[in-house]
Structure to design on (669 residues):
């Protein structure tokens, strides 16, 4: 969009005056409606069901009329001033007063929608909310272009830079730092330069994210809100790996070494064992996931700062930390999709910085997180080939990724046992086939049918939840849309509810690709220079911020709130109660009665607290062969209750018990 050329106010037609005056009138009325909604404190019922206290609607109409009149009056004054003022000299371009003010005010026309969009209780239908947000973000960006174009008119080149406010702030801080005497002043002056300030902000944000998420993840674990699937399962697998039993996880599959490969190939465990060995427990894994995802924002910032201004790169990194799908993956136990996302962001930064040894190591660690991560890295290699950006490396990455995936998924894993996730793709399985190969056949041979499986409300809502915080930037260019391909395959193509829910780990497939794609989109929007390019990029960043704020208000976990959806329910940010602490003490006492080499069966919520032993079994799948059963008598799931009662009928006896916990042992012990 090219800016309109400036002209004397007298040269403008009546239509231009009416248009600009209408913008100011609408902005005034919209601001008035926003103020009265906030002041009235009844936005929730008003936005949801059009309910208002008695007399409030009349007040709203009066405020609306007053705002419209104020905007119209301001337009009339500006028009008269512009018409009576002499034309500017030809050597200095100056925007007409009314036109410039109208464009500056354009985004405020949406003010009336903001209170409702920022009130979580006003929405009961997440699909409608997501669609409404999408329309708001796109329109807001369009209006922001008008707004930012008006900034540059009649000003020098410095005003065209997004960083100009940051540059002015940096200069002010430098002046103050120089006034501080001694070494402290020297150290402050060394920090003040803009690149260092920007880096410091991101590092502090990363440290804050790691501390925040680690604290509440451990808090959630202490409240017994973690589960066999998947924290207990993965902790048990780590512990077996640490003690010489690779890919063994009796909490999931009661077989010997390598049996876990029929489920997933999470070979990166071998390289993470030194960290786990420092404190072999589920809590270590929760903190490790927080650290890797927290550092992901730093690698994203480094990548973005090479092609965008430092302040814009900082904004993108801060939006990463506020990204609701990241929070869902973060707080649902531990999974290797988000862990791989941390390694992949590191790999992309290393690749972009031409640190090829670090790139190879990080890419390898990411691929080893799970067999399906190599699908995403194959698409990354394809992206490098399609865009002709280092295509030789792209071909190598593509070939290695595809080879690894084919060997692991079609040769090694089937040799261990049958794949257990084919039912997630029921819609895409050809008649008579139950294999991964059958799904690929449907996608390749019947793209029309494959596309129709995407057309559901919940998949639309999920796609918007992934893309809205980024103002849909990753799909602004066809080649950048490749960034959503891996995640779309593992989520949108399935017929499995959790893969369409940002409260689960599956958004980890998107995270390492959509944020770098957003940085590339912002770079391309600013190309061409001049006022139009800067305005486009500024507007996109404003839309990015707006999308992030709105989505994290409804679906994010920062700051703490009473309702944050994750996996099986709402996560609590409340500290553990005395009852939780007593339960942990009782659990520890009962565990001291169980020999270390005994086979222990445990109920779902308790298993992650005792999974750091060789033989920890999930009792809901059967009690046969278990030496001791630790049973939660307060709120067991139905299958656990059935197995517990069957064990008692089979001669198991009570060894000890505490409030809500019963330890039973098999006959003869």
């Amino acid at each position: 969009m090219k800016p309109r050329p400036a002209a004397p106010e007298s040269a403008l037609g009546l239509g231009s005056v009416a248009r600009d005056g209408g913008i100011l009138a609408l902005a005034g009325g919209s601001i008035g409606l926003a103020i009265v909604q906030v002041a009235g404190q009844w936005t929730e019922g008003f936005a949801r069901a059009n309910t208002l206290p008695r007399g409030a609607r009349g007040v709203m109409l009066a405020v609306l009329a007053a705002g419209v009149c104020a905007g119209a009056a301001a337009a009339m004054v500006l028009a008269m001033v512009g018409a009576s003022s002499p034309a500017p000299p030809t050597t200095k371009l100056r925007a007409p007063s009314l036109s410039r003010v109208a464009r500056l005010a354009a985004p405020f026309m949406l003010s009336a929608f903001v209170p409702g969009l920022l009130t979580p209780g006003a929405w009961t239908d997440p699909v409608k909310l997501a669609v409404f947000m999408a329309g708001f973000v796109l329109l807001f960006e369009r209006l922001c272009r008008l707004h930012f174009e008006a900034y540059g008119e009649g000003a020098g080149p410095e005003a065209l830079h997004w960083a100009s406010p940051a540059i002015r702030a940096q200069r002010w801080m430098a002046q103050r730092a120089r006034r501080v005497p001694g070494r402290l002043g020297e150290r402050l002056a060394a920090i003040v330069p803009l690149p260092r300030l920007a880096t410091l902000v991101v590092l502090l944000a990363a440290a804050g994210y790691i501390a925040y998420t680690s604290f509440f993840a451990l808090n959630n674990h202490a409240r017994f809100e973690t589960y066999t699937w998947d924290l207990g399962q993965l902790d048990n697998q780590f512990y077996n790996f640490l003690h010489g039993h690779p890919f063994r996880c009796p909490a999931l599959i009661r077989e010997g070494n390598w049996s876990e490969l029929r489920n997933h190939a999470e070979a990166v465990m071998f390289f993470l064992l030194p960290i786990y060995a420092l404190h072999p427990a589920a809590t270590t894994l929760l903190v490790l996931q927080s650290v890797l995802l927290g550092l992901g924002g730093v690698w994203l910032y480094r990548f973005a700062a090479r092609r965008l201004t430092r302040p814009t790169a900082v904004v993108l990194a801060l939006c990463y930390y506020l990204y609701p799908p990241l929070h869902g993956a973060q707080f649902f136990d531990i999974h290797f999709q988000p862990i791989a996302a941390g390694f992949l962001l590191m790999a992309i930064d290393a690749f972009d910085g031409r640190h090829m040894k670090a790139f190879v190591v990080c890419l390898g660690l990411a691929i080893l997180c799970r067999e399906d991560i190599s699908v995403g890295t194959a698409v990354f290699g394809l992206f490098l080939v399609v865009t002709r950006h280092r295509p030789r490396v792209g071909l190598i990455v593509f070939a290695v990724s595809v080879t690894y995936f084919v060997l692991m998924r079609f040769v090694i894993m089937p040799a261990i046992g049958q794949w257990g996730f084919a039912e997630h793709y029921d819609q895409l399985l050809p008649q008579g086939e139950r294999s991964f190969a059958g799904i690929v056949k449907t996608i390749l041979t019947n793209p029309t049918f494959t596309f129709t499986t995407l057309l559901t409300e919940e998949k639309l809502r999920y796609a918007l939840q992934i893309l809205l915080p980024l103002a849909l930037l990753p799909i602004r260019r066809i080649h950048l849309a490749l960034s959503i391909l891996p995640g779309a395959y593992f989520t949108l193509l399935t017929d499995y509810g959790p893969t369409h829910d940002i409260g689960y780990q599956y958004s980890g497939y998107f995270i390492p690709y959509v944020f770098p794609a957003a940085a590339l989109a912002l770079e391309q929007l600013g190309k061409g220079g001049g006022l139009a390019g800067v305005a486009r990029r500024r507007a996109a960043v404003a839309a990015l911020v707006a999308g992030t704020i709105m989505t994290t208000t409804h679906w994010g976990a920062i700051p703490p709130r009473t309702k944050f959806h994750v996996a099986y329910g709402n996560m609590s940010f409340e500290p553990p109660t005395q009852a939780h602490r007593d339960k942990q003490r009782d659990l520890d006492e009962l565990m001291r009665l169980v020999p270390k080499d005994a086979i222990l069966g445990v109920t779902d919520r308790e298993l992650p607290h005792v999974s750091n032993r060789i033989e920890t079994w999930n009792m809901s799948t059967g009690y046969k062969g278990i030496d001791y059963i630790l049973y939660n008598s307060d709120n067991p799931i139905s299958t656990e209750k059935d197995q517990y009662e069957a064990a008692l009928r089979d001669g198991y006896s009570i060894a000890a018990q505490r409030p809500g916990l019963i330890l039973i042992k098999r006959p003869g012990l």
Summary: The chain has four domains: 9-124, 164-192, 195-224+264-570, 578-665. Residues 10 and 83 are 5 Å apart (CA to CA). Residues 195-224+264-570 form one domain. The beta strands are 564-566, 569-571, 600-602, 616-618, 628-632, 653-658, 661-665.
